[in-house]
Amino acid sequence: MNGVIKALAIALIVIAIALAAFAWTLSRRAATPGVDGMAGASAPAAPTFPVVVLTQSLAAGQAITAAMLRTERIGFPMAGAVSEPSVLVGRRLAVPLAAGSPVVESQLMSGLALKVGEGERAMALRVDEQIGIGHRVRPGDLVDVFVTVRRDSQELVDSEARLLLSKLRVLAYGSDSVDGPPPGATASSEPPPPGVRPEPARTVVLAVPVDQVPQLVLGQQSGLLSLALRHPDDPTLPTAKPLIEPAPALALAPASGPRSAADLALAGLSLSGLAGELPMDRRPEARRGAAVPAFPAAALPGAAGAAPKRRAAGDSGSVEVIRGGQREQVAY
Questions:
Q1: Annotated region Disordered: where (predicted)?
Q2: Same-domain pairing of 98 and 142
Q3: Which residue has the higher pLDDT, 313 or 200?
Q4: What pLDDT is stored for residue 120 in this prediction?
Q5: 269: pLDDT strictly greater than 80
């Protein structure tokens, strides 16, 4: 009996040892796949960000084409970086960049110059509430420019007003511009606080064909310009040509073909041409061989060569000089 009990106890001990070994083996097997899986599995990929880089070196001012760009991915976000090549096509660099350099917005040209079309120049004019149509002009509008030359300019016999330039595009009016607000400013459509009047516009910037720039400059310096707002769909333009060819300020050498717009701008415009007066060699007096005065003496009493009008013999110590519509006593 004791032997049976002893054998049974030994058997139970062996079974317990076997169960413990089996449990230890199971625990090792359960732990090993997790460790192996963690070691064998790749770590989570770090996020990458697309950035457009140059495939070749570019100089400042050079236009960007699609062939000059490729997209790469970097491990950190770059402030101002461009991620789409299509955004850069047609843009120009403000600074030179080497091949492989990423392109950021601060390296691109911007400003009003990019809104000026080929063959145009941006010209600024002084405006007030009357000339600026009650400050109702907005960037992108189309306007006609009229000029008034006053009688007392001492250059014309009579005052006149006429259409000077037609269908000019407004690039900027005051601080508003087609290229957005100026640097450091933010566009805001909110009205000013009560009691605070907005700063009135003092200038308007127009896109002017280069051959018409002299007319605008001379009109502003020698006359009074007025803007006339027009509908964007209105196609009306002058069709008649002036009977008198405007006299240029500078005689150019003969050309074999038509003059370019830049050549016409170089020739400029004289005030008599702006006023529509005949050139000296085409006036009737010149055709008859008579001496041609610059202006009629009766029209310009104060012009050079015109004799001052003397008063009565008793006033021999002074003469009366008439300049335009002004009379002046000059002692001698």
A1: 176-200, 302-332
A2: no
A3: 200
A4: 92
A5: no
